[in-house]
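Hey,
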Amino acid sequence: MIDEQTVLNALRQVIDPDLKIDIVTLGMIKNLVVRDGDVSFTLELTTPACPYNKSIEESARAAVESIPGVRSVEMRVTARVWSAKPLGSTYPDVKNVVAVASGKGGVGKTTVAINLACSLALSGARVGLVDADIYGPTIPKIVKIVEPPRLRPDKKVEPAKMMLGIKVMSLGLFVDEGTAVIWRGPLVASAVKQLLTEAQWGELDYLIVDLPPGTGDASLTLAQTMPLTGVVIVTTPQQAASVIAAKALSMFRRLGVTIIGIVENMSYYVCPECGKESSLFGESHTDKMAAELDVEVLGRIPMSPDVSVNHDQGVPIVLAAPSSPAAKAFDEAAKKIAAKISVIAHAAGAAKAGAK
């Protein structure tokens, strides 16, 4: 006779590649029913964007089908993003706040933030995006806003929405495009805090915060205002860029913020005619910097004119050309970031606490 314990024992042989723990212990098996050799259950993944989801699904099904006497297997696959934030935190419905930062300007940090947000949303996650660059808010200029922000009766702001239902907040939504923002540090800090706390975000799996370059007021305010899941550092292959990126990384570590990893933008160029890859900036210095600081390089994004051309039209490359090398690289980086967040959440004990 096949019973639930027999099925669970078989499923315990399936190990999550990131967490190194079996899927039963992780609580990923729900609604298990065994009747006369017919087995049904729900496999609840830790994020819809995990790069190993298909492998886990196939292994779980194979494990149950290998049990002698099993006639059929009905497996429903869902996902519930784990939260790394402490229980009782501000904005409990926002599960993970991820900063995207860089040491210097010109490395494509905003492009990375937008495409990561879109990749996560394409996987089925609920995503928000904050443009925290007060002096140069660019997100409203390079994505199509389909719904403007709205002031609610409770004085909270309903964020704007872009494609895929991504919620967006940016000073650029409230200030005329030609108006220069001439503010000192305290006003910048106050504006960043307002963008974060006066928006009614609702339920989000990931809130991506695109920080201005450097280690100034916006970064400090973010670290002090909301419990950050972690930060993604964006750099380019040049030595100067990696040195300055290392400084930004060190600052967040001093603030007690987890470093999720590094994304190297403009890593190489892919010839559209022959497909050959060329390193336009010579040897990359990112790996050396990452090794010295014990940080993982999560993605290498190729240079592509299509990225800027499509941004000018308000459509990120992951939507405009999903099969392009740049879009695939962004998607791979987003999946690795989502997987790392699951690991961070598990280490924080949030998963066992049943985070929303």
